[in-house]
Amino acid sequence: MNKPLKIGAIVIAIVIALLALIVILTTVLIDPNRYRDEIIQVVKTQTGRDLKIDGDLKLSFFPWLGLQTGKLQLSNAPGFGAEPFARVDMAGVSVELLPLLRKEVRVDKIRLKGLKLNLARAADGRTNWDDMTRAKAESKPAEPAKKSEPSAALAAFSVNKLDVRDADFTWRDQAAGSAYALHRVELTSGNLIGSSPVPLHLAFDLESTKPKITRRIELDAKLNVDLATEKLNAPDVRLSAGDLKIQAQLRGTEMLHAPKINGRIEMPPFNLRALLQELQIAYAPTDANVLKKVGLAAQVDYGAQAVAISDLRLTLDDTALTGKFALQQKPHTAYRFDLAVDAIDVDRYLPPSAKTGEDKAAGKGKGGEAVVIPLALLREADADGQLRVQKLKASGIRSEQVVVKVAAHGGRIVLGPNEARLYSGTYAGNTSIDASGPTPRFQFDEKLSGVQLGPFLKDAQLFDKFTGAGNVTLALTARGFDADAIKRTLNGSVAVAINNGAIEGIDLEKIEAKIKAIKDQPGGTGKNLLTSLPALSPEKGDKTAFSKLQASAKITNGVVANRDLAIEAPHVRVTGSGDINLVTNKYEKYVLRVNNIPFILDGPLDSTLPKPNLSGLVKEQTEQRVEKAKEEAKDKAVDKLRDRLRERLKR
Q1: Which pLDDT tens digit goes with each residue over 36-48?
Q2: CB-side exposure of 244: number of CA atoms within 13 Å?
């Protein structure tokens, strides 16, 4: 919409200049109607367009030199239809006489009624004003550039009152298939370049086809620009578009050279969700009631090289954000911030997750594509700041007193030291990303202390059959552009220590007792165990409580090697050893021993349960039978030897 408004402003300026020219000419030519044809011919010669003047040209001399016209109409460019390019129902201007002798134009009033401006662009890219701009460029020979002060030119021109009524501006873009229009445009103002603020009123109906919207927009302000000092004073600015309202008090300096503006801006809470729907912007959050109360208040300092926002107060439904933010644009883009949030549920604002567990584990985006790290963006990042959140819910995880610190320079991003309280415990950690080289590198140093892992894992939608208070320490490195590559290059160590917990869905003591009972049956073999496996399936209410669970692991290229799992329970002792492949998301023949009875885990992490190790059990039973046979043979040999000795003694 900027281009139609700019062209509209140019047309208004042309009309005003034309009227001023006619007024000056009529100081000598008493009857302007005698020169109607000459005016039309000049326009034809200069623009190639047809100017139509209906009604009389009225001239006045006292107390102001003035001219008033009836309808004026300027034809459209060839190929853009019969609709005129511009027309006006009535135009009038009046100026002071004496300032004209000093080459100053002091306009008392400019009136335009019924201005209609039709702007268009054809499918081939031509616009219906190209011919006029070319004609203007060709009619003037090249001249050396002259330095001029814009304030000096403006100081010789002033308008005490501007009154534009019932104006229409349309923009039709055949190349883009879109159309915009401003209807019922009203513009009134006093002398904006005077010594004190004057009222300004602008109102119009905005219509659009893509998206299809109709909305009344109104601007009311008191302002002025002092040309001598180049200062802007706007003590009261009010903009409204439906229930969206913006209020501001602004001051500016160097307005004609390098504008700098500062002041207070306030936006009372409004329904942003309804506006997005009206603009046909697709947004389907988890909670349909979000974005219905969005407001803003801030102190703003704007310049060509930087923008600073202080005393920021953002209302987002039930959330309040406060703090400050600065954006430096030169010599390069840089961000500085210090923000605080009282409480926010981020999940409410995100779309419902449609990912499968496999996609989630693999770091896939919508449609199954891998989420790629934006390397160029990371390299260009220049930021320092911190975010503090009193209460946070994100990805299902709830936390309090969250502190996140960011330092990003030259492709090296450090997140931390970060901290939070969550699930009766604490979190502390640092994450660093080095994107300065050809492949981004990551380092994770994270620690959970005293965290109730049951609700934590359940809220994170990772595992809902585990309880216990634990400590988890991670020290990992990785590299790559997406989650799959990161997992394939994951290296480091992890340590876990959990007290007074339980694993739901499996009762190791019950399973161990059943296996022992089968083994103790006469002729108990691996075959008997195989036929009895259905009886070992988990039953409702099964749970293995433990007093302590400890494990450490070394991770090499995404494979977790654990050799020291130990679980202590009232009647069961469990040890474990094996590998977990994070790349394939599977156990790789991980062996558990429950009271020395072997179990094996081999398969997907999220669906594999421990199964008795039949080969191990058969081998164990065979070895036991061999040992038993040896003992029996030994006992028989001893008995025979004893009997022989007795017989010899009797002799």
Answers
A1: 888 888 888 888 8
A2: 15
